[in-house]
Amino acid sequence: ETEKKENDLRIAVIGNVDSGKSTLVGVLTKCIKDDGNGLARQHVFNYPHEKDTGRTSSIGHEIMGFDQEMKQVAPLRVKANKNDQWHQIMKSAQKSITFIDLCGHEKYLKTTVFGLSGLMPDYAMIVIGANMGVSKMTKEHLGITLALNVPFFIVITKIDISPAEVRKNTNQTLSKILNGAKKTSEFVKPEDDIANFANLFCSGVLCPIFSISNVTEEGIPQLKLFLSLLKSRVYTNPLFKTVKDPVEYLIDDIFSVTGVGVVVSGTMLSGEVSLNQILLLGPDDVGEFSPVIVRSIHFKRMIVEKAIVGQAVCFAIKYHGGKKDQIKKSNVRKGMVLLDKATAPKAAWEFSAEVIILHHPTMIKEKYQAVIHCGVIRQSAEVSSLSQDYFKTGDKGGVTFRFVYRPEYLHIGMALLFLEGRTKGLGRVSAINHDYKRPKPGVTRDKEEKKKVVERKKSAQYCYSFLIQAHLLCRVISLSLIHISEPTRRYAISYAVFCLKKKKKQ
Known about the structure:
alpha+beta
């Protein structure tokens, strides 16, 4: 079990769009050269539209195996089925690395944040195009990695097509940014001792920078050697506990398999799970947990009998006990957890956190809403109270959040990010309020809603009658009503905007 934990690594691949992330993953895992037109990335993409556009829009997974002599286990066939390819690699591999290929485009930022916070990577590989320089999204990804305390190293690609002056400016800018982040960086040269770089990086002393080309394979052997020497962070990462602790499993994706039923994928944070073990699935929309039984376990697409802490595995589950209905895919969502049946878990609507505001154009006050990213949790939350009147960029303090749609299962000390437009903040959960209960919709609430609708109707009727009077007034005083604002929702008009223009004499 110790060898399993130490020899299984996960590396998140991040960086700006068109920097060569998927191409680099294809070159490393498929043992092929790129042709300069995206040949290697075609074997990595999940969907046809990604192949057409050349841009990653989903989270991809690829593995890289090393034998006992730390030599890479090459796939026998590049175009082989992923199941067959992973089986072949895992049978011969003593150590495996899973690359989590994340999105680079700005519109997929929430997917990238989910991958970094929810999939628990050991390290992050930040990819930068030498011909593009350090872009805005590269800085964004770097900031999120620092906020989540994920160790990272840099890979500069496309050095074969980058002009010397542009490459020099990229290196200088990168060194300046890393110095500002209080990171000691050093460019790796062909003659350097890679083992020394790996030891310094794993100890948190150094951030190495590799310069490679996916077409000529310059720098690729040094990068592969560096990857083979990396160590798992399952013992040093405070998010992971021990095998003896109660089971906690975070669900990051759900599948419906024909003939099998619902299959969930996720990460083991603590404990161990065996076949036919009973666990608690939840929380649902009302904060309750249901008993389920684990029917089968898959690790790296291979059937296993047991899953332990630190592993990313898949479980086929079904309801246990009195429930005869089958689990539907709609009954499970990202953000749910599987917990030991001996525990008495509680979901919470409200929690407090110590936060710092990285950027906000104006001020954050009560009733402000943002999307919370906390592990696999991704949900809108409302600010119910602040430790001061308002927060601006750079402010620190306590905030109480209240989830908008459903309660979630949280721990004190969990790192969180909240995003809303250009607003960004980070913090840690400091307290959880299990006593707050959201009011259930009933007769009283229905009456209040009906009363609000009646008031909106009266407001709308008043506004329309005012507009009719305005039309009549315009005829009397020879003015033209040239524009009236349209209501965006039914019965929601609360004011009218109109423009008056003096009529021309006939």
